[in-house]
Amino acid sequence: QVQLVESGGGLVQPGGSLRLSCAASGFSFDSYSIAWFRQAPGKEREVVSCISSSDGDTYYADSVKGRFTISRDNAKNTMYLQMTSLKQEDTAVYYCAVDQMKYYCSTQPWYEYWGQGTQVIVSS
Predict the structure, then answer these.
(1) How far apart, in whole angstroms, are the C-alpha atoms of residue 34 and residue 62?
(2) What confidence tens digit (pLDDT) does each residue in 71-104 have?
(3) Residues 29 and 40 sit within 8 Å (Cβ to Cβ)
(4) Which of 10, 87, 97, 107 could form a disulfide with 111 if both were Cys (CB 3.0 to 4.6 A apart)?
């Protein structure tokens, strides 16, 4: 019964902050690489950030670098995306994903398990 349950989405003003959470269950979370993707209306799904299970490989999209931070708490089987200085362009449905990769994380949507998505709207 593998599950990834996302929370933390909502409406926020430009320049504001938001923290997304993704709670994992049903598998060995600490052996999986994690990633956050997003999909805006009319756009293709794109990677936001990812980190390997060993924490040795990380990636941030240029559009979010310096504003977003990916993290994980293996003791809680939870991953997070801290978003600051939000822009209207960040409006999208955000998805968490995991895959059994130890030494690297993929920027492509080839992950084994996915969350249901959470809506983030940045608007004044």
Answers:
(1) 18
(2) 999 999 999 999 999 999 999 999 999 999 878 8
(3) no
(4) 97
3-state secondary structure of 77: coil
27's tokens: 């598998």
Identity (one letter) of the amino acid at 123?
S
| 46 touches 61 (CB < 8 A) | yes
In this structure, are residues 118 and 94 in contact, taking their beta carbons and an 8 Å threshold?
Answer: yes
Q: Fill in the amino acid letter for 85.
A: S
The model's pLDDT over 11-68, given as tens digits with 9 standing for 90+, comes to: 999 999 999 999 999 999 999 999 999 999 999 999 999 998 887 789 999 999 999 9
Asked if residues 47 and 63 have their Cβ atoms less than 8 Å apart, the reply is no
Percent of the chain at pLDDT exceeding 90: 87
Place of tokens 């019964």: 1
Q: Are 118 and 6 in contact (CB under 8 A)?
A: yes
